[in-house]
Amino acid sequence: VPAAAWQRAADVRDAVRSFRRHSGKEGLLLRGLPVSSGELPPTPLVAGSVQRAPSVSAAILVALACGIGDPIAYRAEKSGALVHDVVPVPGQEQVQGNVGSVLLTFHSENAFHVHRPDFVLLMCLRADHGGQAGLRAACTRLALPLLSSASRAALASEEFVTAAPPSFGPEMAASRHAVVSGAPDDPDLRVDLAATRPLTARASQALAELGEIFERTARLVLLQPGDLALIDNRVTAHGRAAFRPRYDGGDRWIQRTFVSADLRASRSVRSHDGYVAQ
Ligand SMILES: [Fe+2]
Question: pTM of the prediction?
Fold first, then answer.
């Protein structure tokens, strides 16, 4: 291995280690990573596509996940695999989820789940044909100072519910939660603008204001092959611009891994202390 490659690996390790502790306002974008040992296969076309065989990109995702915490997966999502393919699927264009291609609204990943991921890693293997499918990220550290104090108070109250997708089963009952919680000067975020339901008039108004501020403060990144975005899911909502898939094997292909900063905290919903939560 050439010395430059070792230096590069050390730089990546240092960047990830520092992001783990201080994730800042911008997220972390690593560029120029290898995505494949040979020619990249066609972009998968089916829902539920995952990586179970070793590959360069999957190895990088899981190695980085272990560097920032532990990988975590969900039994009901992508069959519990640690590395997911995020690809557009024919007939699913309108879905507010990883298979769709319409505008994906701002959300915390798995906002409905008590043990949602702390970090989301998104690695680009292939960009979309039109160069339109930008990743959008809105950080509370930029957005919340712009909120009115009335909305801030409403978001901190347990006046919201976020339902789980039906695949998670009836036991995943939605309970009331706040959208912002924890330290008043640097709170955690829990929201999905497509799924979180406000229970009061003031909660509804606050959610609308938050959405407007996300629109104004969000960063847009057009991921290129070899780019890996690290998102701190505790303080950042993310989404994706609309794009037009062709379903010709050359469509946008992102691989995704979720990370838990404290895997032990979800032990009661992970059988045999594995990486897959219910
Ligand atoms: Fe997401």
Answer: 0.96
